[in-house]
Write a structure and sequence with these properties.
This protein has 59 residues and is mostly helical. The protein has one domain (2-44). 58% of the residues lie in helices and 0% in strands. It is built from 3 helices and no strands. It has helices spanning 2-14, 21-29, 33-44. The N and C termini lie far apart (37 Å). The mean pLDDT is 80.
């Protein structure tokens, strides 16, 4: 239930559905260095450990 509430709230605030596959490429292509730095700072603020895996696009 919480997932759907967050999805509806994000759609209302951002003006588009972030979870929609049609928006994925646009979202990824518009991530800036500043966005990554802010996310890293937020994730690492509490000294927890995270594993993030990036998969290359199949050729």
């Amino acid at each position: 239930m919480v997932f759907y509430m967050n999805a509806m709230m994000n759609k209302e605030l951002e003006g588009f559905n972030m979870d929609s596959p049609e928006n994925f490429e646009n979202i990824i292509n518009n991530i800036t260095l500043n966005d990554v730095q802010k996310m890293a700072k937020t994730l690492l603020e509490d000294n927890r450990s995270y594993e993030i895996i990036f998969k290359p696009k199949p050729e």
